Amino acid sequence: xxxxxxxxxxxxxxxxxxxxxxxxxxxxxxxxxxxxxxxxxxxxxxxxxxxxxxxxxxxxxxxxxxxxxxxxxxxxxxxxxxxxxxxxxxxxxxxxxxxxxxxxxxxxxxxxxxxxxxxxxxxxxxxxxxxxxxxxxxxxxxxxxxxxxxxxxxxxxxxxxxx
Length: 163
Description:
- The protein is of the alpha+beta class.
- Helix content is 33%, strand content 29%.
- Strands 3-1-6-7 form a four-stranded mixed β-sheet, with no helix packed on it.
- The model is unreliable at 19-45 and 52-58 (pLDDT under 50).
- Residues 1-21 form the signal peptide.
- It comes from Faecalibacterium prausnitzii.
């Protein structure tokens, strides 16, 4: 008990000396401590709110706006998990005419979004099939390219067509 009293007295003395050296007073110290505590509480609350908002932000849908800029009708369009044998539904439906677009959305649990890799595959009416096999979980415009235009690095471009 005596050690506890000595420790408290030493802490009070250190605080008093510190406040005197800074030109403060005991009431300023009390006010400063209260203000500091309030600031810390507000900062903690803001950090918690920010973290919650960040978690909600992570739980967003992936959204791909796919533009047909191939010069031909796209008869087949698939977006599926890399490595999967099942391509799923033909997203082109009755076909996607040159110049038309479609929005594709996907929802994955927030903690798994960083691991998602999709394959975007399309076939034009002239029978040419192309794919892009490293599409990640994101919001992005995608322009499908013709075989001639795709002779470069990829069969797609991450941009909306110029109007």
